[in-house]
Amino acid sequence: MDVSQYLEIFIDETNGHLQNLSDCIMSLEKDPENMDTINEIFRAAHSLKGMAGTMGFKRMQRLTHDMENVFQEVRSGNMHVTSGLVDVLFQCLDAIDAYLENIKESSEEGTDDNEAIIQELNDILAAGTGNVPEEKKSEKTEEKPEKTEEKHSKKYLDMEFSEKEKEELKDAESKGMNIYGLTVYIQEECLLKAARAFLVFKAVEDYGNIVAYNPSSQDIEDEKFGVDFSFYLVSETSLEKILEVSKAVSEIAEVIGEKVQYSELTAAAEKKEAAEAKETAENIKIEDKNGKTAVVAVQAESAPAASKNTPAAKKSSGGKPVTNRTVRVDIEKLDALMNQVSELIIAKNSLVSIGSSSDGGVVGANSQAFHEQIEYLERITTGLHESVMKVRMVPIESVVQKFPRMIRDLSKKLNKKMELYMTGEDTELDRTVVDQIGDPLQHLLRNSADHGLENAEIRKKRGKPEAGSIHLNAFQEGNNVIIEVSDDGNGIDTENVKNKAIERGLITPEQGEALSQKEIIDFLFMPSFSMAKKISDISGRGVGLDVVKSNIEALGGDVEVKSVLGEGSKFIVRLPLTLAIIQALMVEVRGEKYAISLGSIETIEEINADEVKYVQAKEVIHIRGMVIPLIRLDQLLDCEPAESERESLTVIIVRKGDKFAGLIVDELNGQQEIVIKSLGKYINNSSKIISGATVLGDGEVALILDVNTLF
Amino acid sequence: MANSMSVVEDGKKQFIVVKIGSEQYGIDISYVDNIVRMQKITRVPKVQPYFKGIINLRGEIVPVMSIRTKMDLEPDEFTDVTRIIILKLEEHGVLGILVDEVKEVVTLAPNEIDKVAYDAKNSKSSFINGVGKHGEELISLFDTNSIIDETETV
Hints:
The complex is a heterodimer.
Chain A: H1 7-30, H2 35-55, H3 58-75, H4 83-106, H5 115-129, H6 134-149, H7 163-174, E1 178-186, H8 193-205, E2 208-214, H9 217-221, E3 228-235, H10 239-247, E4 252-260, H11 262-274, H12 276-300, H13 304-307, H14 331-356, H15 367-392, E5 393-395, H16 397-400, H17 403-414, E6 418-423, E7 428-430, H18 431-452, H19 456-461, E8 468-477, E9 480-487, H20 494-503, H21 509-514, H22 517-522, H23 545-554, E10 558-564, E11 568-576, E12 581-589, E13 592-597, E14 601-608, E15 613-615, E16 618-623, E17 626-632, H24 633-636, E18 648-656, E19 659-665, E20 667-675, E21 690-695, E22 701-705
Parallel strand pairs in A: 6-8, 13-22, 17-19
Antiparallel strand pairs in A: 1-3, 1-4, 2-3, 5-7, 8-9, 9-11, 10-11, 12-13, 12-20, 14-18, 15-16, 16-17, 18-19, 21-22
Helix pairs in contact in A: 1-2, 1-4, 2-3, 3-4, 3-5, 4-5, 6-12, 8-10, 14-15, 17-18, 18-23
Chain B: H1 2-6, E1 13-20, E2 23-28, E3 32-37, E4 51-57, E5 60-66, H2 67-70, E6 83-89, E7 93-99, E8 101-108, E9 113-114, E10 128-134, E11 137-142, H3 144-153
Parallel strand pairs in B: 2-11, 5-7
Antiparallel strand pairs in B: 1-2, 1-8, 3-6, 4-5, 6-7, 9-10, 10-11
């Protein structure tokens, strides 16, 4: 069978199962007797095995098979979960992950047999129980169909017929053909139920005609059904033959059917109408029962005895119809869509500027209607933009969910007790940002675990709880998403950092004295400036924080550090919510147009020239109790100097974190939605003051000021 | 499309002849995406001095560079015939260069092109990789890649 087209589904589902397994094993480590968790792991391992087998990944199948074996024994109480087992299980996950990586790259699982891990698993298994005979298992699997058969109901009896279908059935019977009612049950874990159904139909249609479907053939095609579907077949062949060919389709759990008479059918239908209310109630009951039996059936496959007393609640998706309401879209298509929305916004902006140009010859008398329509268009484009942005947003969960496992491993490796607490995993960010935020966050967490947290002894001395805690909090703040990584460890020893900087000749001791805390901490973000006393494979090679910083800056964000010696440190990562389109304030400086993101603007002030004061020979203003440094944009941007000093100054107060600055501009041109475009590779924009350009409604180009670089 | 046009006959190449100052220069037509009239160039602060700024070319932002500044000639004077030649290189994107005037398109056979020896003292010559003879006239042929390469390393 050609399975390549299902590869993506396979990769996706395997990822899901792996994550699930990882979470479960983590919680198992804390609570080794929890039956629910053990069952969950067993099921996940089993599904993985089944999927790997279907796709023909033999090595992966073998590994998961052995994992399943171990858990079968754990489930039936023959052995207990030990920390050794947990370690091996994590190794298994890593191995499966490696297979998956190979599959992603080359559609092949690779050639690593992972014999060592399999051996270890089997050793544990042998130590725990003595060898498990293989035959026993296959016997059990065979038992299963008989057991479950009784529980499969004859759902075809509940079907209703349209007039046309009734005609056909009547016709067929009068011609001496047989009418068979059939209900097909597909295996719970089957991935492509619609395909299986199709194969069943194809098989039986060699022998007769299908007259009626339940659910409708369209729904079956769209996979809008649970694990079963029913149909009526008109055929001359024997029932046995029909059952045989339909059961021959793989992943079909059971097919039940019988020969029916037309009169019986119509009678049944009439009866049904008469007692509709009662029927519905009963139907639901049947559904329920089925959902439950289906789950039991899955478990029954290898351990029928044990499964009786396990709660079947968690995975009871079997009974209710599976409606697939998501669409997988290539990110490139979304990019294309985004570009088109950008173009539309530019076109809209030019309409706006035509509309607002004073006389607007074409518009004339209809200007009222014209403006209304423009406003309407504006609402639509803004909405469209928001929708496209939302489509591109994914929760950061996909990135952060691997961290608890990482911290666990670090904890073992470093021999420090630590806990990771995460909040706001559902915070959403643009897909491209999420894809790239993983590494920097990982760096920060490793940093906290390795450098931040003290060892148990020191912690005890300082009166801190033995287990260190690391927090990862994510939340949205205005147009930004903030991710904080904090620990209750040692904090940054600024004296130490300063001495190191002096030692390395970066500053003189005199300069060192004048540095603020923040300036000292900034040294940590310099390339190859490592504070680790010894290099470990976790961190300390000096390729940490500078990479973190540049990665985050490449995404248009920034990092800030707060630290109290002895109490801990906090890294604050600020990321923009959107990448391509922002709301901006348009300003003019010496006739040149610039855009400043609204997100960073605090207020706009009109001040008199004589209100400008000097502190350390720098211009500041004193406003509402704050002293805010002033930046003259015309000087900063190398504009022609103004002929005369103005009486009153327009100051835009911008903010980054808890710092403020005032930008002096000549004129304000109002707020606008702008599309960020890159300046291209040729321009050497090393100062980074200009983060991009945008095309205005009248075709003119304005530059976008990145005020974050001014601090 | 530009590529298919550039190969006219065996080894023959087409060049767009432009005037910069008093000299004539040829630009390999296969690199030329477009020729546009002079339009408002938005200055970008804090970049290399030979970048005049950026223009809006049908919604695209295109950086424009002054060949004159780069070759240490006197600054550009914008007239009615000033044009911006938009060059396109596969992986580098687009780049506009300012020229005083666009004259014509010529086809040169290999035997009509003389290679020039590289003269380290003269920075100007490093942009030229040959001299074409077209009738009585001499045309210095731009090495398009060196114009771009150097801008990247600066």
